[in-house]
Specification:
Strand content: 25-35%
Largest sheet: 3 strands, antiparallel
CATH topology: Arc Repressor Mutant, subunit A
Oligomer: single chain
CATH class: Mainly Alpha
CATH superfamily: Winged helix-like DNA-binding domain superfamily/Winged helix DNA-binding domain
Number of helices: 3
Helix content: 25-40%
Length: 90
C-alpha cells in the first residue's frame, strides 16, 4: 500500500484499488462516526462532542477539503446547516 501524507493531519492510501483516508485527529474521527448514523446539524455536533462551534466548523471544512463530507441547507435562507458523509463512488 502506498501512503501519501495529506494536508490537515490525514493520510490517504494511494493504492489504485481504494480511496481510503486515515485521520489522525480524534475529533475528525468522531465526526465521521456520528455522521455514519445520520446527517447532523453543526449545532448538534457541537452538543454531542462538547466542542466549540468554531472547532467543529474547522474540522468540517477540513473534511470537506478531503472529500469525505459535504454540507447542505434545508431552505432558501440557509438554515439549518446540515453535514453528511459523501457517498462513495462505485
Amino acid at each position: 500500500m502506498k501512503i501519501q501524507k495529506h494536508p490537515r493531519y490525514s493520510i490517504r492510501c494511494r493504492c489504485p484499488k481504494c480511496d481510503h483516508v486515515f485521520f489522525t485527529n480524534a475529533n475528525k474521527r468522531k465526526i465521521i462516526e456520528l455522521l455514519q448514523k445520520k446527517d447532523m446539524k453543526i449545532a448538534d455536533l457541537c452538543k454531542e462532542m462538547g466542542v466549540s462551534r468554531t472547532s467543529i466548523h474547522h474540522h468540517v471544512e477540513s473534511l470537506k477539503e478531503e472529500g469525505v463530507v459535504t454540507d447542505y441547507y434545508t431552505d432558501e435562507h440557509g438554515q439549518p446547516h446540515y453535514v453528511k458523509l459523501k457517498e462513495k463512488k462505485q
